[in-house]
Amino acid sequence: MALPKSFSPFTIKEKLEATGLKGRNFEFMTDYSKEQLQSLFEAGEMIEPYWRSGLDLMKQKVLATLFFQPSTRTRFSTEVAMIRLGGSVLSESNPTTSSSTAKGESLSDYLRTVSNYADVIALRHPDDKEVFASLKGARVPVISGGWGNVTHPTQGLLDVYTVYRALGRFEGIKVMIASSDLSRARSGHSFALGLAAMGAELVYVGSSENAIPSAITEKLKAANAKVTVYNDLSHEAFLDSLSEVDACYLPGCSVPKDDPAARAAFLDKIKPFYITLEALEKVRRKTGKVVGIMHSLPRNDVEFDYAIDDSDFQLYFRQMAFSVPIRMALIAGMVGV
Question: Does the reported pTM lie above 0.85?
Fold first, then answer.
């Protein structure tokens, strides 16, 4: 037997180095090659057994979470990831009120200031243009925790990782991203970019009124993504299209509760995309496929049948379980061990 000179046990350090993340921002998943993302997923698998008991990979390192928008899952899972790595967290959940931005400090200066106290920054912000113009102020790597309506790569990362863990492959699979408003589906677009980078085929189902942002279509084109787009399908045609795919992703609603008119309009628009357990069972009888239903959460009761919660088709709660270990791998890769 001829063994390569590199034959030896895997180490987490080697896997993290192979991601090419060290010292870089995490903005779009297509900024990284298929091989780099594969190394990140493999690092995540190595970390999974320790996502509750912890590792000391980031001892004496500090993460700053700066969230200009409300968040539960992204913020908590990112902070817990750093804590489980043995590091510490500085958390600011309301910067416009309790930080110097309330005094008029620019985002660029804010990032530069926080860079003195942290080794990595996780930032959520409603204005992607302001963020991209301000990143030059940061002196440490910055993780996008959701910027504007364009990019939410850590959500996309855990969603792609969920597919990786559920199916073990990307070649030959087809995933649907369905939303009445694809102009604001940042988590769905980040998921799509990650899937494209890994070689999966995409099916977008949306409305011609609220199309995919050009910034996303350009990145998908640059990634040579296989994409099919269906607009303005009837509810029946939408349910029929589920038989084409292996999973369906619903990006959810980011319209605030205190804007009832906008929220009511959004909820009315997504009714054609309502998915029932009966429809999924019909697809299984027709094709033999179990179409996984994914969602970025939180959800609305008009999006899909709650009976899916306890079925074979449910992936949305399982997605959350993978959010900590893959974010642990991401942070450790960006900071370096």
Answer: yes
